[in-house]
Each structure stands twice: as C-alpha cells, then as structure tokens.
Design a protein that fits this description.
- The protein is α+β, with helices and mostly antiparallel strands.
- It has 2 domains: 79 residues, Glutaredoxin (3-Layer(aba) Sandwich), CATH 3.40.30.10; 106 residues, Glutathione S-transferase Yfyf (Class Pi), Chain A, domain 2 (Up-down Bundle).
- It has 11 helices and 4 strands.
- The protein has a 4-stranded mixed beta sheet, with helices on both faces.
- Helix 1 links the parallel strand 1 and strand 2.
- The longest helix is centred in the middle third of the chain and has 25 residues.
- Bound molecules: glutathione.
- The site of glutathione has 15 residues, from helix 3 and helix 5.
Length: 223
C-alpha cells in the first residue's frame, strides 16, 4: 500500500492523527512542518492547505483532507476494524460527533490567537497578555463544561478507546497545560492519563509528544 502523507509536527494537532494511524497500522510518512515557527515552515504546507495549517493528510489516492477532527473521524470510519470510533448506528455516535466537533470549534480554534496574540491584539504586550489569560480561562470553562456532560468509562465514551480520546489527550497538553486540565476535568483526567500510559502507544509518545521532567506544568520542550 502506498503511504499516507501527513503534514504534522511534534506536539501538534497532527499528533492524534499520527496516533490513530499507528493504532490502525497504516503506513504513513510525516512531513514535519511546525507552522507556528515561521514562514519557511508554513511554506511547506501551503500548496496542500492554503491556510498553511497542519494537520493535512494526503491519501494514497491523492486526496487532501485538512481539519484534524475531519481526518480523525474519516480514519475511524474508513478503518472500522480498528474500532477507533462508534459506527454510524451505534448509540454513542451522536455524542462522538458532538465532542469531536466541540474540541476544534471551541478549544483548538483559540490557538490561532494564543500562538500569536498580536494577530488580534496588535503589538501591545499588555493586550497580548490579557488575550492569553482570557483564552486560558475560556479553555478551562470548555473543559469544565465537557466534564459536566460526560460520564466516562475507561474512555470518554465508554469502555472502548476512540479517536476522541486521542484528540483530548493531546489538546489537553497545550496551554493552560495538564495540571489545570486535571483541576477542571478530574474524571476526564483519568482517561487521558490512561491514554498517556497505553502500552500500544508506549513507543509513540516519546517520539511525537515526549513526556519530559515537569511536562504537565510546562510548555513543550523539543530536543
Ligand atoms: N482547524 C484546524 C486548526 C489547525 C491549526 O490551528 N494548526 C496549527 C498547528 S497545531 C497551525 O498550523 N497553526 C499555524 C497557523 O494557524 O498559522 C484543525 O483542526 O486542523
């Protein structure tokens, strides 16, 4: 089988997609493009995604899929034998779609401004700091809301791991970081810790989103 090609980066929103492809057992290659590092990195993905964002997946048939949630849902549906998402007629399907949409719409989208607060706030460092603080609070509110609406089992939607668990495990590591996520969402925290420790991903996490000393409190440290 020709490999899937994923434009992604260490610790990025491409990581849950990589984790899903690893669990499915798909051959894939990564084009490393940490777009937040500047124009040269953005240029790598521009021809595939004019918004110059990762993740972007190119299938062996040559189709491009952008949007992390769309890619994850598509993978789960396309490879049902991997059991990474509820089937279209499964009782948890509606809640699966609900939360798979909530994460990018309400949380991930805030990183467009958090990664560079001058995009909305201009050059004033005080305004930028206010944007960072306000978006951190908003993200915590979103996690609290999700926590109040879910009754996790071993995983967020029951006893089977889905791409939603992979997605939340990665996004909850971004600002305002895991320690605050643990306070906001204690029951979901048990789930993401289980995914952090999943033996099937034991070799994957150190390569693509390493756990370093103090990682639950600190930003990503590469190299
Ligand atoms: N809605 C997109 C958001 C993707 C996104 O924001 N990706 C970040 C990296 S994690 C990015 O490429 N940022 C660069 C930019 O927005 O300029 C998705 O869910 O895939």
């Amino acid at each position: 089988m020709t490999a899937y090609r994923l434009f992604s980066a260490l610790g990025s929103g491409g990581v849950p997609v990589e984790a899903a492809m690893s669990l499915i057992g798909l051959p894939y290659e990564i084009v490393e493009a940490p777009t937040w590092e500047g124009e040269a990195e953005k240029a790598k993905v521009a021809a595939i995604n004019p918004l110059k964002q990762i993740p972007a997946l190119v299938t062996p048939e040559g189709e491009t899929i952008t949007e992390s949630a769309a890619i994850l849902i598509w993978l789960a549906d396309r490879f049902p034998e991997a059991r990474l998402g509820p089937a279209i007629d499964a009782p948890t399907r509606a809640q699966f779609l609900r939360w798979m949409t909530f994460i990018p719409a309400s949380i991930y989208s805030l990183f467009w401004v958090r990664d560079d607060p001058s995009r909305l706030g201009g050059p004033d460092p005080e305004v930028q700091a206010r944007i960072k603080a306000a978006t951190a609070e908003r993200i915590l509110d979103c996690w609290r809301m999700m926590e109040s609406q879910l009754t996790p089992g071993r995983y967020l939607l029951g006893d089977e791991l889905t791409v939603l668990d992979l997605y939340v495990t990665v996004v909850s590591r971004w600002g305002p970081r895991r320690v605050r996520f643990y306070e906001a969402a204690p029951r979901m925290s048990e789930v993401v810790k289980r995914v952090d420790a999943d033996p099937r991903l034991a070799a994957f996490w150190p390569k693509r989103f390493p756990f370093f000393e103090g990682w639950e409190r600190l930003g990503q440290q590469v190299g």
